[in-house]
Every structure is written in C-alpha cells, then in structure tokens.
C-alpha cells in the first residue's frame, strides 16, 4: 500500500503543480481584511471544480509545517467546524505518506446525510517549499457505508507552504487547492462552488485560531528553555596541572537566530578543582546562511573564560585559546554528521 501511495503521490504532485501554474483561475471571493483569496476553475480531466485558496499565516514556515504534520492534522476535529471526526489511520514515514479518514459535519441545503473521505497525503520538500498532495484511495476496514456517503478527493488537490519573501521568519504563504466530489444529488456542481468557497474561508479562520494558541504554547516553551551545565576541562601543557571547570548557561530563540548565552551560575567549585570565571557576554549565535537557507548554518561564537592560570599574562594565552576554539569547531563538525544521520527523517529528505 505504501508503494501505491508513493507512486500515485508522484502523479498527484504533477497534477498539483499543473494546477498551481494554470492561468484560467476565476476569482470567487476576496477578503482583503483577512488576507484570504479564493479562486475556482472547472477541470476537464476530473469533470469537477477545483478551489484555490491563498492565505497568509503569521507563523514561521518550518514550525508551521512540523506542527501541522505532528499535531494539528491529528486534531482537525477539535478546531475545524466542518469536521466531525478525523483519524490518521496509517503513517509510512520512509515514503512520506499518510492515510487519513475524515468525516464531515452535516450541512444545510438539504444535505442531511453524513459524508466521509478516505485519502492519502504524500509529502514533498524542495528547498523552503513544503508540499502535501491529497487523493482518494480505498482501505480494508474503511469500505463505504450505507449510512455515509463516500466523497472523492480528486488528484491535484494539495497544500503548499513557503516563507513570505518579505517576512521570511515570521510569516508563511499558504496555497491550498481542493476538489472534493461530495456526491450531492440534484444540485449542479457550479451552484455549489460559492458554498465550498465559504467553507474554504472558514477552514482558514479555524486553522488560524487554533495555530495561534499552538504558537503561544511554542513561544512559552522556548522562553523557559534554560539549561544549567557543568563542564570539566582536560589538563593542558604550560604547567597547567590543575583540573578546571565551569558552571554555566542560559538559552533563548529570536526569530531564526538561536542564541546561547554563557554565564557563571552561583555554584561553588570542588576544592581540588579551579572554578573558571565565564564572563558575561560570551555567547553562541546560529542562523541560516542566506545563500543556502536549508542546508547551511552560520555560527558566531564569542568566548571569554578566565581560566585562573597564574603567572601568565592573559594576552599571552589568547593564541592558545584561539587554537582551542579551532579544535572545538573541528571536533563539533566531526560529531554532528553522525547526529544528523540519526535524527534525519524522510519528511526532510529533499533538503
């Protein structure tokens, strides 16, 4: 089944890209005050309408994608007013595939029968653009019921997220293309397009409201990201035969810049050790390389540690500390590739 998801997912991605690039979209609704625009187009291949919703999300793009994938998607029934039940039936992380079952709320217009869809979601990452295409499928145990009308999610539906070029670290542009045949009798599909357009707007408003609460939780967790560390240094030459240690640090995040500030905590040293004075102002700053946003990080490391080395002027020790800084970076570079291989996931395989 995962092979089917991967194979059909590639075809669905082609159709989604075609829909993104087509120029025959017709404006349905525009809500400038909400930064939401909804367009429609009749598709000859599917003999149905696609709706294209463009909206902004005032959240960092990478966080938004991860939160949607890891939490918000599973909680759809909690925040979407159109969704009665949502379940992730199966995940295949190696193939970037998810199988989902969604049951919709009953609506007006005489639509008194419950409707559901069973569909695959296939993820794709290209640079800072994250795409998830959707298309209907069948699954044992989720066969159509006589009490529930089974809808169809047409190939070409999907979601694209990428940073706003003008506010890369604080705003995401969302492109959502949807086409679901809900098997509603007696009503021409063209008449239903405005109704679906209103549903698209409500979906975005519901999603924003829920994500705002999630984002506040995220910021609160980042604000409390404090670490107390104790480091013991190796003995070195120059007659430095006493073990030295330091107790330090506090970290926080600002936008796409990750900062760790080093400072001495009020902890006494062991009698056999020499307590290092780690001067206030020492810090480590990490941020994406503007030329290679998703594959390279720039590191700025400011260090000033009084190692309490007697009989030697601090200026004499600077070249020695400089060599130590170089060795620290080389050691770190040797260790991190192994960590990257361990923590790497197929959802970001295309980075």
UniProtKB/TrEMBL annotation:
Task: Name the source organism.
Answer: Darwinula stevensoni
Q: Please give the SUPFAM superfamilies that the UniProt record associates with this protein.
A: Bet v1-like (SSF55961)
The name this protein carries in UniProt is START domain-containing protein
Record-linked Pfam families: START
Q: Which GO terms label this protein's molecular function in UniProt?
A: cholesterol binding
Example GO biological process term? vesicle tethering to endoplasmic reticulum
Name one cellular component (GO) term: lysosomal membrane
Q: Which Gene3D superfamilies does this one have?
A: 3.30.530.20
Provide the START domain boundaries: 21-216
Instruction: Return the PROSITE patterns for the record.
Output: START
From what superkingdom does this record's organism come? Answer: Eukaryota
């Amino acid at each position: 089944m995962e092979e089917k998801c991967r194979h059909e997912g590639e075809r669905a991605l082609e159709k989604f890209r075609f829909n993104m690039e087509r120029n025959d979209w017709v404006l349905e609704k525009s809500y400038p005050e909400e930064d939401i625009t909804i367009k429609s187009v009749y598709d000859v291949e599917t003999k149905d309408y696609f709706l294209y919703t463009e909206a902004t999300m005032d959240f960092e793009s990478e966080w938004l994608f991860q939160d949607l994938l890891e939490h918000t998607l599973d909680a759809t029934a909690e925040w979407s007013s159109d969704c009665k039940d949502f379940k992730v039936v199966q995940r295949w992380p190696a193939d970037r595939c998810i199988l989902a079952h969604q049951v919709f709320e009953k609506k007006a217009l005489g639509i008194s029968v419950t409707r559901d869809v069973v569909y695959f979601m296939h993820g794709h990452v290209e640079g800072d653009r994250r795409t998830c295409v959707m298309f209907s499928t069948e699954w044992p145990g989720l066969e159509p019921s006589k009490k529930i009308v089974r809808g169809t999610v047409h190939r070409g539906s999907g979601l694209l997220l990428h940073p706003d070029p003008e506010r890369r670290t604080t705003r995401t542009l969302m492109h959502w293309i949807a086409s679901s045949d809900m098997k509603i009798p007696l009503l021409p599909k063209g008449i239903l397009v405005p109704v679906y357009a209103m549903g698209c707007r409500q979906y975005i408003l519901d999603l924003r409201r829920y994500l705002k609460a999630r984002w506040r939780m995220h910021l609160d967790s980042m604000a409390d990201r404090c670490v107390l560390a104790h480091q013991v240094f190796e003995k070195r030459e120059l007659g430095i035969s006493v073990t030295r240690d330091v107790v330090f640090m506090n970290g926080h995040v600002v936008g796409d810049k990750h900062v760790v500030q080093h400072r001495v905590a009020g902890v006494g040293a062991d009698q056999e050790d020499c307590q290092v004075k780690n001067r206030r102002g020492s810090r480590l700053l990490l941020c994406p390389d503007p030329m290679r946003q998703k594959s390279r990080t720039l590191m700025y490391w400011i260090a000033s540690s009084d190692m309490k080395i007697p009989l030697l002027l601090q200026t004499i020790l600077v070249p020695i500390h400089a060599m130590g800084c170089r060795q620290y970076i080389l050691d770190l570079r040797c260790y991190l590739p192994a960590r990257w291989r361990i923590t790497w996931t197929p959802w970001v395989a295309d980075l």
